[in-house]
What does this fold into?
Amino acid sequence: MAGLGLERVVKQFGSFVAVNEVSLDIRDGEFLAVLGPSGCGKTTILRLIAGFERVSRGTIRLGEHVVSTEEEHMPPERRRVGVVFQSYALWPHMNVGENVGYPLRVAGLRREQRSRRVAQALETVGLTGFGDRRPADLSGGQRQRVALARCLVMDPQIVLLDEPLANLDTHLRGSMQREFDEYHRRTGTTMLYITHDQSEAMALADRVAVMSQGRVVQLAPPSQLYREPASRMVAEFVGQASVVEGDVWTAAEAGRVRARVLGRECLLRAAPEQPPQQAAAICLRPDDVSVRPAVAGDAAGTGIIRRMTYKGGYFSLEMEPVDAPGRMLKLNVQEPCSVEVGGRLAVDIRDGWVIPAA
Ligand SMILES: Nc1ncnc2c1ncn2[C@@H]1O[C@H](COP(=O)(O)OP(=O)(O)OP(=O)(O)O)[C@@H](O)[C@H]1O
Ligand SMILES: [Mg+2]
It folds into this structure.
């Protein structure tokens, strides 16, 4: 097991900067998720760590060893980094045991040693007895476990996973998530897990690094990411959020400010250095807002329901506030409920987060 450090890592392809000054410290035994939209540089970071790509600038350290700098590049096979890809990349003509044992054969281990370690790896992923099957005769989840076993058989110091569940259906994803989680708890292996699925990142990781356009824009535990997004992008990418304008009247005191949002006075959470500010960006989660039918005389703080989606037990609503035409406020309303599209509601703002000014 080992920690991992990236220090101001840059990767350019020609003049295009795919990874831009990324610094990350992953603790020994930590489960870190890298989350971000397509093309933001996630896979490139994984390939840099595994040693499939050279850094343009910066330093990568694995445990005690510097493995990548502009001048030095330790080859992938010496890094003891295990990689699992989305496309399982199993050999179709080899059976499960041969697939898992392949890296050991390449490394020149003898047959008896190989079969012992293959059996161990298959046991770790719950596939004891599957050694003679062909990949074609396995389910998607089982294939993914074979890919994981093949990565574990080399006894990696760190495991990198690139969207390993993207090809699986929702149920299987859930059960594989539990398996990754259990494997991590049992072995304490340092894991870096790449995904563009925020719920997967939140469910699995100790900390999540959110990336946008080659940069890490926030690195925090899941709950902090959700409750205290560092930017509008993070607020909208992680969980459901409405970002609306509000006027912050007071400087932060004990983590709270007085503000006016959508025509309502309210108390919001804010960073300690938050000053009074006109037209600040406010992140409202569906649970931050409560609603009731608007009555005659309600002017400020009302809105028209534009969309309703049944979610099982509750409805997810989009409401257009009278005070912010064109914006949509996301709300949840418990079942049974009598509201309908075109109806008018009054909102109360119970909580919310002032997104720090850039
Ligand atoms: N070998 C390459 N040559 C040129 N550009 C590249 C190369 N590899 C990646 N890129 C570019 O770098 C950017 C980041 O790519 P990367 O594969 O890291 O994205 P990603 O975050 O993994 O996206 P996805 O979620 O779609 O897998 C993209 O714009 C991509 O086109
Ligand atoms: Mg990718």
About this structure: The longest strand covers residues 16-26.
